Amino acid sequence: MDSSKLSLLASWMKQSKYTVVLTGAGMSTESGIPDFRSPGGWWRNIDPATVASRYALENRYELFRDFYIMRINTLEGCKPHEGHKVLAEWEKRGLVHCIATQNVDRFHQEAGSRNVYELHGNIRTVRCEDCSNAAELKEFLEKKPCAKCKGKLRPNVVLFGESLPYEALDNATHSISKADLAVVVGTSLQVYPVNQLPELCKGKKAYINLDTGRSSSQFDLVIEGSARDVLTKAEMLLD
Ligand code: NAD
Ligand code: ZN
Question: Which of 33, 102, 163, 196 is deepest in the core (most CB within 10 A)?
Answer without folding.
Answer: 102
